[in-house]
Write a structure and sequence with these properties.
Blueprint lengths: L7 E4 L5 H10 L2 H8 L8 H8 L6 E8 L2 E10 L5 E8 L8 H15 L4 E6 L4 H9 L4 E6 L2 E7 L4 H23 L3 E6 L5 E3 L13 H12 L5 E5 L2 H4 L7 E5 L5 H10 L4 E4 L5 H14 L3 E2 L5 E4 L6 E4 L7 E8 L2 H14 L3 E6 L8 H8 L7 E5 L9 H9 L3 E5 L12 H12 L3 E3 L2 H13 L7 E6 L2 H13 L3 E7 L2 H9 L6 E5 L9 H13 L4 E5 L8 E3 L6 E5 L2 H24 L9 H12 L8 E2 L2 H9 L8 E4 L2 H11 L3 E4 L14 E5 L2 H20 L2 E5 L5 E8 L6 E6 L10 E4 L4 H10 L1 H5 L7 H16 L3 E12 L2 E4 L2 E5 L13
Parallel strand pairs: 4-5, 8-10, 8-11, 11-12, 12-13, 16-17, 16-18, 18-19, 19-20, 21-22, 21-23, 23-24, 24-26
Antiparallel strand pairs: 1-2, 2-3, 3-4, 5-7, 6-7, 9-10, 14-15, 14-17, 25-26, 27-37, 28-31, 29-30, 29-31, 32-33, 32-35, 33-34, 35-36, 35-37
Length: 842
């Protein structure tokens, strides 16, 4: 919700009558009047039965639950024989202003679209401003009319870009709010689940109680010594009962079996977030999550090592490690508790300042997507470093990471675990694609992760790939130039000579965006004149990124001018500096293309037309039925996104096939219904270059003998296209995360591991996906890949826009010159699947 708390959403049930009755009796007369347009202090048995018994198609209702009590109900009822429904909401008076009605509208709209409803109507009183605001803020284009003191509202339910963007914006704000109470608390409670009684660290006169967990005692001392300005309470579960309602952060340790009861008590005090330090097995974690979901809590852990925020106004140091973080501008997340201590130790050694640090362990509730939503708007955080474990990335990751990467640098070290045989699992391939498409810099080691963090802590990110290398040794400068080129930078020149002169020469070149200074002098410190020259140069040229490399010598990690605060990072080897600069230049280019292209719809893609087609075709089957489109419908759908299939006809007899071939023009391809795309023989259901009526008749007979009549019908007669490269494109929605696969098609598909991407797929993403696939090794000129990139982008945009499309497989696509011919395609549609425009956890 807007305040960062959660509620459970589910369909209404007949046994909810008691909940509905209690809910109704709690509401004010004004709220009841706004809902029913008349006084109604009690609901009749008939009304209760009508409200709680729905058919989940024409009559749908959702309830929002918190602490097993109903806090909101939303419903729609279809006007008989139409695709329009009346919608209504009722939110508990105590929960107004939390964004609950907007969440319920998201769920109602998703259910309505799934059931073929395309338009909502609502009636409300003019002074019911809250109801009017719900519709206005949801992103829909609302038409309204005042008639006889009643406002009639109506809006189309199709999930437009504005609607999806509004849901995404509200979701990210809610995620950030849930993290904010954890990282910016005014009150902290440290609770030992195995102890009893309260002990306030701000009231030494209170009777102390035995705290079994030593970490909690140390945390209390760290908070006190770190000048945490808020209140801190240390004690057992009973201490929670004496806290004022609304404690921001509760840190819990102790026996895992006792945690559910402690979490219930946290919810009783309306805790903002709970950090669980204790380890828990799968069943214990499930029990913990049940309480978290039921009571509307947000949870970090189990197995977390805590959190910290170095903002002097917050001064939160709740980390169960010895090292203390230095204040700075780098946000850090680690999904491995064991790594946190090493990270902090190394950060202190190299002088890396941290804005906030979060140890999530294996995230059960709060996860990397929530943290990225917080960091995206945190003014103190210039860059984010992620150490990700083996848990799959949440479905919300791409959208949260893209939002964060547009405003600051995000780098990630992901798990390199492999399945047997050395090949990555499907989940790992998908996660890599999610990182690549979200603008996150992938790194292979902690050294690379820290190099990026160190550079951004002291210097601006490079404004381009142009780099100047300066130094007193020609050999060392040449070595660094090679390292920069290998990292993807464009070495403008290598300047050899005294530092002031070579630095001035580098600054005079307008193509230079970063400067690497090479120091080959012996000794534990760079020469004073070099230090002064470099720091002065960095101060005079804040638009340039300046780093130093000592070419293997162990030196301090950074040079700092205490008077001005200017700092320059020092790297042991030039390849470390070059690699960090190259990664940051790539991230800058991603941000530039993301600003230019965004998630724009390809020209010629008529989203409204495609949705209307699919909704009409789905009416031919049941609500849960998956339909495979026939050739005619395939062509209609593809035409709506600017794509065409090579000319073809569906036939059922030899005579019809001959007539179709005469119309299309010989030679033709003959394809049976049950065909193997990897083979091109009559026995496998695919025959090419059929050159005349006699040849077609003979081929038909062989095919029918091998496949039988059921395997034949309907038969496709298709125009032969010019020879080219066989390409395959497959887009699927197996779950909330849609995937895009590109590789070689036809007979080569069996030998090619297709490259994987995820939805949404912007045009630059499609270009990178094709470039990383085997298609690029066959089409070495990037210009020859343009038709493939365009086709991949259009198909991905089609599936992303219409959630009822389950799968599109175009295989083979024949790439010949400037044209990509779709010669075979399979399209499945059904109930909406994937990332519906509703808020959810996970």
């Amino acid at each position: 919700l807007r305040d960062g708390h959660t509620v459970r959403m589910r369909s209404i049930r007949p046994d909810d009558a008691g909940l509905i009755t209690r809910f109704h009796e709690r509401q004010s007369p004004e709220s009841i009047y706004f809902r029913f347009f008349s006084p109604r202090p009690r609901l009749s048995e008939r009304e209760l039965e009508h409200f709680t018994r729905v058919d989940h198609r024409d009559r749908v209702a959702f309830v929002a639950l918190l602490d097993d009590e109903l806090v909101g109900v939303a419903r729609y009822e279809r006007y008989e024989g139409t695709d329009t429904a009346e919608v209504a909401f009722f939110v508990d008076d105590r929960h107004h202003g939390r964004g609950l009605a907007t969440v319920m509208l998201e769920y109602l709209a998703a259910a309505a679209r799934e059931n073929g409803i395309t338009r909502f109507r609502a009636t409300t009183l003019p002074n019911n401003r809250k109801m009017l605001k719900v519709f206005a803020s949801a992103g829909y284009e609302v038409a309204s009319q005042l008639d006889d003191g009643i406002i009639d509202l109506a809006f189309d339910l199709r999930p437009t870009d504005d609607v999806t963007a509004a849901v995404d914006r509200r979701e990210r704000l809610a995620e950030a709010a849930s993290v904010r109470r954890m990282l910016e608390p005014a009150t902290v409670a440290l609770i030992d689940a195995g102890a009893g009684g309260p002990r306030s660290t701000t009231d030494p006169g209170r009777r102390p109680v035995p705290i079994e967990d030593g970490c909690l005692v140390r945390l209390a001392e760290r908070l006190r010594d770190g000048a945490f300005p808020g209140s801190v309470t240390l004690g057992g579960p009973a201490a929670l009962d004496e806290l004022p309602e609304g404690v921001d952060l509760v840190v819990v340790a102790g026996p895992a079996a006792a945690l559910p009861e402690v979490l219930d008590r946290c919810a009783d005090r309306a805790a903002g977030a709970v950090v669980v330090l204790s380890e828990a097995d799968a069943s214990q974690t499930e029990a913990i999550l049940e309480v978290v979901r039921r009571r509307g809590l947000r949870l970090l852990g189990p197995g977390s090592l805590g959190v910290c925020n170095t903002d002097p106004a917050v001064a939160l140091d709740a980390l169960c490690v010895e090292a203390r973080p230095l204040p700075g501008t780098i946000g850090v997340l680690s999904e491995s508790g064991e790594v946190v201590s090493s990270v902090l130790d190394h950060a202190r050694r190299v002088g890396l300042g941290i804005s906030t640090l979060v140890s999530t362990a294996e995230p059960a509730d709060l996860n990397v997507a929530d943290l990225l939503s917080y960091w995206a708007d945190d003014d103190r955080t210039r860059a984010v470093l992620l150490h990700l474990g083996s848990a799959p990335l949440p479905s919300r990751f791409v959208r949260a990471a893209r939002a964060a990467s547009r405003t600051r640098t995000v780098a990630a070290l992901a798990s390199t675990a492999r399945v047997a045989g050395g090949r990555p699992s499907p989940e790992q391939r998908r996660d890599r694609a999610m990182l690549r498409q979200s603008g996150v810099i992938p790194v292979a080691s902690l050294q690379e992760l820290f190099a990026i963090g160190r550079l951004l802590a002291d210097q601006p990110p490079p404004g381009g790939r142009g780099v100047a290398v300066v130094g007193a040794s020609r050999a060392a400068v040449d070595l660094a130039v090679d390292a920069c080129a290998a990292a993807g930078l464009d070495p403008v020149t290598g300047h050899v000579g005294p530092a002031p002169d070579s630095l001035a020469a580098a600054a005079s070149d307008p193509t230079v965006r970063s400067v690497v200074v090479i120091d080959t002098t012996p000794g534990p410190l760079p020469p004073t004149d070099l230090v002064d020259a470099v720091l002065g140069f960095s101060s005079d040229h804040p638009e340039l990124t300046v780093v130093i490399s000592a070419v293997g010598s162990e030196r301090p990690a950074r040079l700092v001018d205490d008077a001005t605060g200017v700092a320059v990072p020092l790297f042991t080897f030039p390849e470390h500096a070059g690699n960090a600069l190259g990664r940051l230049a790539t991230a800058r280019e991603w941000r530039s293309t993301a600003r230019v292209y965004g998630d724009e719809t390809p020209s010629g893609l008529d989203v409204d037309a495609t949705r209307a087609l699919v909704e009409r075709w789905r009416a031919d089957g049941g609500p849960d039925q998956v339909l495979e489109l026939d050739a005619s419908r395939q062509e209609q759908l593809l035409a709506a996104c600017g794509l065409r299939v090579a000319d073809r006809r569906e036939v059922r007899t030899v005579e019809q096939a001959v007539a179709a071939a005469e119309e299309i023009g010989w030679p033709v391809a003959l394809k049976a219904r049950r065909r193997d795309r990897r083979k091109r023989t009559a026995l496998s259901g695919v025959a090419l270059d059929v050159a005349g009526a006699d040849d077609l008749s003979a081929t038909w007979a062989r095919m029918e003998e091998a496949l039988g009549p059921e395997g034949m019908q309907p038969v496709v007669v298709q125009r032969m296209v010019e020879q080219g490269l066989d390409v395959a494109v497959r887009i699927r929605r197996p779950d909330r995360i849609g995937t895009v696969e590109v590789g070689l098609g036809g007979p080569m598909a069996a030998f090619d591991p297709w490259e994987l991407g995820v939805l949404p797929l912007a045009l630059p993403d499609a270009s990178m996906l094709v470039a990383a696939s085997s298609v690029a090794r066959a089409l070495t000129d990037p210009l020859t890949r343009v038709p493939v990139v365009s086709l991949v982008h259009r198909l991905a945009a089609l599936v992303d826009a219409v959630e009822e499309i389950h799968e599109v497989r175009a295989d083979p696509v024949i790439v010949a010159g400037p044209v990509a011919w779709i010669t075979d395609v399979r399209i499945l549609i059904g109930s909406p699947r994937g990332e519906l425009p509703v808020r959810h956890l996970g």
